[in-house]
């Protein structure tokens, strides 16, 4: 055969009905083992693949899901993409991964594309501050991961308990003897009502009343240069605040830069100053000394988000409760 083989061709070659071939390919209904082996041998021999476009028209599903990430080079988001793809593949879905670089315009373009390509659902690591009309009108299922959508949109989400995570990280520094602590927070987390910032401030207030810096936190833009930015900032802080003895970093990349600054200053970690990061990435594990950090359970976050989205796809309009996944403190040499 020169043309692409069809289900009818397979049925003719196998000497069975078209419905039998369909049941075998879709693994539904009843058929004998002998018939299954005969059909699958022909499928393999002729390299049959299903016409997904026609199939999606019949079922109104494309079996595709889009994942929108802000920075695919960030190890935490890369792990999210890996776990989502692995889980969804097992469920018969193809995952499209799109990197936005935290650009709202690019994000909006992707969201419009997802609607036009008729994907079955969207997992967005985004605050979704600018939802296009095309997405609102499509009623396409959406779940946010690691973010809560802003505005009035009731979009289900899966997040970590970042308030408790920041509180626990700061409390660890205090338990290890730190009394003059600052936080280096990713710029997007520096809003006064952000749970990561609130958790840090609450731990200082509870354990160190009246014994803290007037400027306790500093924003840093997360980028390829964030470790360099934090290195420069910490060098300045070590010069201006001689009694600085603890730093809570809102990412491991930031913590790596902070640890380099401590080494350059001639101080020792953890004897003179202690540092804890966030995410449990390679930056924290390969640093010298290894940096204490917050483990975020990326696999659990990913699977929960996928399960929630599949539930929305199978049951449109269903009310899905948000999920909050706990974190854990991972203590290494940087805090003694």
Structure description:
With 336 residues, this protein is an alpha/beta fold. Helix content is 45%, strand content 15%. The strands form 3 sheets. A 6-stranded parallel beta sheet has the order 2-1-3-4-5-11, with helices on both faces. The chain has a 4-stranded parallel beta sheet with strand order 7-6-8-9, with helices on both faces. The longest helix has 17 residues. The mean pLDDT is 91.
Attribute tags:
single chain; 336 residues; alpha/beta; six-stranded parallel beta sheet; four-stranded parallel beta sheet; 13 helices; 12 strands; elongated
Quick description:
The protein has 336 residues and is α/β, with parallel strands linked by helices. The chain is 45% helix and 15% strand. It is built from 13 helices and 12 strands.
């Amino acid at each position: 055969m020169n043309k692409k083989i069809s289900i009818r061709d397979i049925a003719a070659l196998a000497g069975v009905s078209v419905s039998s071939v369909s049941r075998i390919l879709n693994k539904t209904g009843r058929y004998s083992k002998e018939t299954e082996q005969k059909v699958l041998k022909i499928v393999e021999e002729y390299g049959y693949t299903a016409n997904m476009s026609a199939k999606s028209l019949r079922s109104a599903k494309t079996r595709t899901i889009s994942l929108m990430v802000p920075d695919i080079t960030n190890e935490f988001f890369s792990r999210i993409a890996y776990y989502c793809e692995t889980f969804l593949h097992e469920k018969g879905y193809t995952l499209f991964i799109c990197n936005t670089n935290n650009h709202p315009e690019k994000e909006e373009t992707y969201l419009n594309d997802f609607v036009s390509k008729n994907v079955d659902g969207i997992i967005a690591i985004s605050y979704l501050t600018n939802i296009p009309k095309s997405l609102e009108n499509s009623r396409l299922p959406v779940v946010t991961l690691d973010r809560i959508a802003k505005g009035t949109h009731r979009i289900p989400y899966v997040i970590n308990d970042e308030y408790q995570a920041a509180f626990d990280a700061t409390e660890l520094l205090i338990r290890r003897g730190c009394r003059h602590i600052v936080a280096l927070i990713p710029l997007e987390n520096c809003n006064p009502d952000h749970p990561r910032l609130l958790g840090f401030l609450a731990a200082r207030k509870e354990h160190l009343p009246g014994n803290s810096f007037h400027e306790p936190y500093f924003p840093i833009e997360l980028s390829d240069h964030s470790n360099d930015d934090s290195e420069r900032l910490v060098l300045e802080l070590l010069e201006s605040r001689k009694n600085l003895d603890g730093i809570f970093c809102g990412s491991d990349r930031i913590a790596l830069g902070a640890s380099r600054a401590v080494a350059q200053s001639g101080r020792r970690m953890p004897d003179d100053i202690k540092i804890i990061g966030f995410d449990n990435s390679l930056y924290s594990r390969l640093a010298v000394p290894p940096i204490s950090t917050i483990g975020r359970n990326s696999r659990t976050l990913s699977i929960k988000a996928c399960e929630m989205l599949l539930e929305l796809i199978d049951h449109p309009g269903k009310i899905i409760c948000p999920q909050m996944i706990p974190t854990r403190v991972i203590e290494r040499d940087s805090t003694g």
